[in-house]
Each structure stands twice: as C-alpha cells, then as structure tokens.
UniProtKB/TrEMBL annotation:
<keyword id="KW-0503">Monooxygenase</keyword>
<dbReference type="InterPro" id="IPR002401">
    <property type="entry name" value="Cyt_P450_E_grp-I"/>
</dbReference>
<keyword id="KW-0560">Oxidoreductase</keyword>
<feature type="transmembrane region" description="Helical">
    <location>
        <begin position="12"/>
        <end position="33"/>
    </location>
</feature>
<dbReference type="GO" id="GO:0006805">
    <property type="term" value="P:xenobiotic metabolic process"/>
</dbReference>
<dbReference type="InterPro" id="IPR017972">
    <property type="entry name" value="Cyt_P450_CS"/>
</dbReference>
<comment type="similarity">
    <text>Belongs to the cytochrome P450 family.</text>
</comment>
<dbReference type="GO" id="GO:0020037">
    <property type="term" value="F:heme binding"/>
</dbReference>
<keyword id="KW-0479">Metal-binding</keyword>
<dbReference type="GO" id="GO:0005506">
    <property type="term" value="F:iron ion binding"/>
</dbReference>
<keyword id="KW-0472">Membrane</keyword>
<keyword id="KW-0408">Iron</keyword>
<dbReference type="InterPro" id="IPR036396">
    <property type="entry name" value="Cyt_P450_sf"/>
</dbReference>
<dbReference type="InterPro" id="IPR050182">
    <property type="entry name" value="Cytochrome_P450_fam2"/>
</dbReference>
<dbReference type="GO" id="GO:0016712">
    <property type="term" value="F:oxidoreductase activity, acting on paired donors, with incorporation or reduction of molecular oxygen, reduced flavin or flavoprotein as one donor, and incorporation of one atom of oxygen"/>
</dbReference>
<dbReference type="GO" id="GO:0005737">
    <property type="term" value="C:cytoplasm"/>
</dbReference>
<dbReference type="GO" id="GO:0008395">
    <property type="term" value="F:steroid hydroxylase activity"/>
</dbReference>
C-alpha cells in the first residue's frame, strides 16, 4: 500500500511539474515573444534566446525590408539575440534620426570582444563622446589632406593607380582573381596617407597585411571562413567564448587583429624616432604632433588611440573600397556596352583622369553613383545607438537601443527609383546629358558618424575606375566563361563579391 501511495504522489508531482513547465513556457511565449515589447516599435521577435537571427536567411537586409513592407512599416524592431534592435527602413526616417537628431544618434553600441582588445579606443566602435569627436574631427581633416601638406591627396591616389595599371599590364591578358592585387593597391593608398610610404604591390609583407584585413572582415561574414559564424554568434553571446569551437574562433580572430596591431606599432615607433615637427608627411606624424598639444589623460590624443586609429583606417578602408572596384568590374562584365560608352567618354580627355575634370565625365559619374546605389556595400550600415530616450516617426525608442539604418532599403525604394533592381546609369543623367547628383544615394551613411573615409574613398573609386576603364577592356575568363551575378555575394559585415577570375586586356 505504501509503495502504491508513493507511486501516486510521485506521479502527481511529475504531472504538476510538467503542467507548471508548459504553463510557464506558454506565458513566456505569450508575454515575451508573441506580444511586441511595449518599449519598442512593433516587429519580429523570433524564438527565445536567438530572436529573429535564425530567420534572416542569406541577406538580412532584404528579409528585414520584406518584413517592413509586408507588416511592420518603416520603423520596426527586430530581436537580435539578447537585444531588440530598431531598423530604419527609408530615407526620410534615417535623416530624421541621424541628421535632424544627430546628437542623440551619434554613438555606437559597445561590442565586448572588440572592447577587450581596444580598451574602447579606436574609430569605428567608439561611443560618441567629446574626446572621441575631437579625434574624429582631427582624422577627418588629415584624410582630406590638411596638416600633412607636402603631397596633395589626389596625387597620392593617382600615383598608386599608375602602379595598378602597370601590374594589370604585366598580367598579359591572363585570367586572374584580382582581389589581392586591388586590395594591395587600395591598402597602399591608406599606407601612403597613414605611413607616408607605399609598398610594392607584390611585396610579401603587404600581401600578409591585406590578407589579415580580409580575414578580419570575413570573420564577420556568413559563409566565407569556417570560423566566421562563431565570431558572429560571439557578438551576441560572449559568454560562449569558453566553449571549444567559439574559443578557437575567438583566438583566431584576436590573433589576426594582434598581427595588424604589431604592423602599426612598428611604423609608429619608426615615426617617433624620425619625427620632423616642421614637416609632417603623414597621419602618424600629424597625430604625434597633435599629441604634444594635449594631455593624454584629458583627451584621446595618446599612443594607444593612435595605434587603434591606424588599425581602424586600414580595416575600414581596405575591404570596402576593394569590393567596390571588384563590383564595378562585375557590372562591366554584365553590361559590355557600358564599357564601350564609358571608355569612349574617357577618351575625350587627353590627360590622365582627374576629379577636376569630373564635369566632363558625366557618364562615369553616373556609373559610379549607380554602382553605389545598386550594389550597397554596407546594406545595414554600422550599428548606432541613441544616448537618450527619443521619439522617431511617432515611435518611442528607449535610450541605448541598437539602431540599424537599412541603406539597402533606401537604394531600392520604388518610390525613389523606377525598377530599382535594374542597373541603369541614365537615371542619373538629365535631358541635357549632365550628371544629376542624388542625396538619396547614401553608401557612406549620414550624420555625425558618416564614413570618415568618404572623401578619400570617392577619390579612389573615381581615379581607379577611370584608369581601369580608359586603359583596359574587361573580359570574362574564357575557360569558364563565367559572368558573376550582380545581386549575389557574401553577406555579413558588408556585401562582398564571390571570388572570380577576369581578364584585363590592354587597349
Ligand atoms: C566605398 C568605400 C566605403 C564605404 C561604402 C564605406 C561605408 C561606411 C559606412 C556605411 C560607415 C558607417 C557610417 C554610419 O554609421 O553612418 C562607415 C564608417 C567608417 N568608415 Fe567607411 N566606407 C568606405 C571607405 C572607407 C575608407 C577608405 C576609410 C578610411 C580610410 C573608411 C573609414 C571609416 C571609419 C573610420 C568609419 C567609422 C566612423 C565613425 O564611427 O565615426 N571608410 N563607412
């Protein structure tokens, strides 16, 4: 009888626990996942723990845009792991937040793995306080050519472009994957500005640093590197860094950045030894001189910040610009007639292409603007955060929310662009054949944290493409006859082309 009684008690206990668990899960589902969080705009909450992350598919920016169009509207929330992010899905809303309320939206959320390495210093992932903005303002001036007077920025870029032309010529029409060559060239522009020197494009040290930079961003992409998804997941769930596959991925990620930092530190040490205060020749010189005007405790003008600024400029400036040039080549492979008309326009200029003659090259300008629009390199920008509670478009957004501008959505808004998926340079040409600049093409973001290298990147893209199109014909690899698609690529920290080979044939 005792046994029977014990059995019955145990059974009812198990049943009660089960009922309790089911009720708890239903309540959790009902209150946490089914209903929108009262503090955020309506949106997708996905599943417990991961939120909407498993539902993004290959291109998060496209999936979010679809959700926004079908159900939630321009301002929506998306649960990303442990955080609710707010995504702004049209031009007016992005301007309302990032430009009209620029002070509130001038910060970035802190990513623990990066903060541990950088101590919070650097350029891209820093909070938007006064000391950071002093350094940002200074860096922006230097990148526009101020404070290191000797060589004009366009001359630096043109010199490097001539090296690229020579390397292309030396390929003798052989089908080649040009990612490393273009990466090294783009890196050389930054090296010229930051270190005051350039490397041979085939120099092994140069190749190593470019590979390191490519690795850093591919860790943040879905699909390229084996460890990339682990690093992405660590961004949201850093506690998992102790579990073996995450531990290994984190170690690789950190050792990759440490190698880059070593490269920068070596240059800083050299510059300190040879500094001529009356004649700064590059960013490091200019920063070392500026450091003397500030106290390292009251400002961010100190050596750690210098090292992390140098690193940020190389990382942010290399893959983005390289991919833009590679995408341009893919577009030209897809539209051979464009090559013909752009080449013809460039041949009307007798001298080497220069931005000063930009007005004479409306088709090239339209091509570049359409490239920025149609192939959005940073589709979801770089995360921002708001430093105060704020209201946007009638929605309350609590302080410290992760904010994402859907730049892809702006570039594909059918209200602004007819047939947005079509690559059509003539949408940027007026009836008199003049180029129409569009403020709604925003590949570099907008507002207080707009891309720091915007001017330099625009200069590079113009000079590099003008030289390539003027001097070479771009032909598919005859072995595969493969023409890479313009709307498919690697997605993650950016939108990058898959590897492809191409022939650059001298004209
Ligand atoms: C075509 C090339 C490039 C594209 C499409 C691009 C795009 C972007 C975007 C979308 C952002 C985020 C802006 C925002 O939050 O509103 C950004 C930030 C940044 N970019 Fe670029 N970029 C390019 C080239 C460069 C170059 C050449 C450099 C430097 C030499 C650079 C340095 C930076 C830095 C330092 C930031 C962080 C700024 C901050 O947080 O205050 N970028 N870029």
């Amino acid at each position: 009888l005792n046994m029977l009684l014990l059995d019955a008690v145990l059974n009812s206990l198990v049943v009660s626990v089960l009922i309790g668990l089911v009720t708890f899960c239903m309540l959790l589902y009902q209150y946490w996942w089914k209903f929108p969080h009262p503090c955020y705009p309506p949106g997708v909450r996905g599943v417990p723990v991961l939120g909407a992350l498993p539902f993004f598919g290959k291109f998060a920016h496209k999936t979010i845009l679809q959700w926004s169009r079908e159900k939630y509207g321009k301002i929506m929330s998306v649960r990303m792991g442990p955080n609710d992010a707010v995504v702004l899905n049209d031009y007016d809303t992005i301007i309302e937040a990032f430009v009209k309320q620029h002070l509130v939206f001038s910060s970035r959320p802190s990513i623990r793995m990066i903060r541990e390495l950088s101590g919070g210093f650097g350029l891209g992932f820093c909070p938007g306080h006064k000391k950071f903005f002093e350094v940002r303002h200074f860096t922006s001036k230097v990148l526009r050519g101020f404070g290191m007077g000797r060589i004009e920025m366009e001359i630096r870029v043109s010199d490097v472009a001539q090296d690229l032309v020579q390397v292309f010529e030396s390929l003798n029409g052989k089908a080649t994957n040009l990612r490393m060559t273009i990466g090294a060239t783009v890196c050389n522009v930054i090296s010229s500005v930051v270190f005051g020197k350039t490397y041979d494009i085939n120099d092994e040290n140069m190749k190593e640093i470019v590979q390191c930079i490519f690795n850093t961003l591919s860790f943040y992409s879905f699909g390229d590197k084996k460890n990339s998804k682990y690093v992405m997941i660590l961004t949201y769930f850093y506690a998992m860094r102790h579990i073996p596959p995450f531990k290994k991925a984190r170690k690789m990620f950190l050792s990759n950045i440490t190698k880059q930092l070593g490269f920068g530190q070596k240059e800083i040490d050299e510059h300190k030894k040879n500094l001529d205060e009356n004649s700064p020749g590059d960013f490091i010189d200019a920063f070392l001189i500026e450091m003397k005007k500030h106290s390292p405790t009251d400002s961010w003008f100190h050596e750690k910040q210098l090292l992390l600024s140098v690193n940020a400029l190389f990382i942010a400036g290399t893959e983005t610009t390289t991919s833009t040039i590679l995408w341009a080549m893919i577009v030209l492979l897809n539209y051979p007639n464009l090559q013909y008309i752009l080449h013809k326009e460039l041949m009307t200029e007798t001298v080497n292409p220069s931005v000063k003659h930009g007005d004479n090259l409306p088709l090239l300008q339209a091509f570049i603007q359409e490239l920025y629009r149609c192939i959005t390199i940073a589709p979801l920008g770089l995360q921002r955060t708001n430093t105060e509670d704020v209201e946007i478009g009638g929605h309350f957004i609590p302080k410290n929310t992760v904010i994402l501008p859907n730049i892809y959505a702006v570039h594909n808004d059918p209200v602004i662009w007819t047939e947005p998926s079509k690559f059509d340079i003539y949408r940027h040409i007026d009836k008199d054949g003049k180029f129409i600049h569009s403020k709604k093409v925003i590949p570099f973001g907008v507002g207080a944290r707009v891309c720091l290298g915007k001017k330099l990147a625009q200069l590079e893209v113009f000079i590099f493409l003008a030289n390539i199109i003027k001097k070479f014909e771009i032909i598919p690899d005859p072995e595969t006859n493969e023409i890479p698609p313009i709307h498919d690529g690697l997605s993650g920290a950016g939108f990058f082309p898959y590897p492809f080979k191409v022939i650059v044939k001298s004209r």
